[in-house]
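Appendix C: a fully annotated inverse folding record. The material below is reproduced so that readers can follow the format used throughout the book. The structure is listed first as tokens, followed by the designed sequence.
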């Protein structure tokens, strides 16, 4: 009897040990995967450590199937990409007179479409599980929202995503090209911070604006990131370092978020993009993007 009891207790002990190992492995895996994006001076940090980040354009993420997201994100991570740049309200294959209501923001009242919000959360979660950061970029002009409804929709989005720590925001893609003023940027920024003070906020600038203007809007609107879309001139990749140097040293991270893009039939090479990223990093940029139409 004593031998039977000892064997029974030993089996139970083995079961407890195995369950403990499994549970520890489960929590360890999820803790390793979970990302917290932060800022320290002019650098991004991931889980507290400074890191130069490389992004890739993945604008139409919300229209991708879960299977496509899984395979695409796994592939990007295998190529040492650190993050994706997405638009929750991105152009679809339609004209101005034929707009399907499949973007995040409802232009009629600034509410969020529940199906698209759920998909946005899925994208952010799947990115996080692969160790990827997400640049969530907004564009008022796509659904032609009023400024008031646009601000309302952005604030609602930030509130809905407040538990995720692997994201930052561009509150208006190329704001100066899309009829927003510096005052509008400041107003939206303040509303976002009121909704989630820990949200990391930028507003990209382009359309001929130079590095000084990029610094100016980041300073005047108290943005967390200098988000500069540089001019797409010839040999842009060889000039990236000099353009970063024209901003650096800065007290905020410098993000070259939308350089020249790769398109089907483009003569740009992988070496061109590698040159741009390498020179941006050497000059002190925090992240930069491999811009491509492949995920439009």
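Designed amino acids, in order:
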């Amino acid at each position: 009897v004593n031998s039977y009891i000892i064997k029974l207790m030993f089996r139970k002990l083995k079961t407890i040990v195995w369950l403990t190992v499994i549970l520890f492995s489960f929590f360890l895996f999820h803790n390793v995967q979970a990302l917290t994006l932060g800022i320290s001076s002019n650098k991004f940090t991931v889980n507290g450590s400074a890191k130069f980040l490389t992004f890739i354009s993945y604008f139409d993420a919300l229209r991708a199937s879960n299977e496509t997201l899984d395979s695409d994100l796994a592939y990007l991570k295998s190529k040492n990409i650190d993050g994706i740049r997405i638009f929750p309200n991105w152009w679809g294959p339609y004209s101005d007179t034929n707009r399907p209501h499949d973007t995040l923001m409802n232009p009629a009242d600034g509410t969020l479409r529940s199906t698209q919000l759920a998909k946005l959360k899925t994208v952010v979660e799947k990115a996080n599980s692969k160790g990827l950061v997400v640049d969530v970029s907004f564009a008022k002009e796509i659904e032609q929202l009023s400024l008031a409804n646009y601000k309302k929709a952005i604030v609602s989005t930030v509130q809905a995503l407040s538990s995720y720590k692997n994201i930052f925001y561009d509150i208006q893609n190329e704001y100066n090209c899309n009829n927003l003023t510096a005052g509008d940027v400041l107003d939206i920024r303040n509303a976002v911070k009121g909704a989630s003070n820990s949200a990391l906020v930028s507003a990209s600038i382009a359309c001929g604006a130079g590095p000084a203007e990029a610094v100016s809007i980041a300073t005047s609107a108290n943005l967390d990131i200098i988000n500069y879309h540089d001019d797409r001139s010839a040999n842009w990749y060889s000039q990236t370092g000099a353009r970063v140097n024209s901003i650096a040293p800065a007290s905020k991270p410098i993000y070259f978020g939308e350089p020249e893009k790769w398109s089907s039939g483009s003569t740009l090479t992988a070496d061109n993009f590698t040159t741009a990223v390498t020179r941006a990093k050497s000059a002190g940029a925090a992240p930069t993007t491999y811009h491509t139409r492949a995920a439009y």
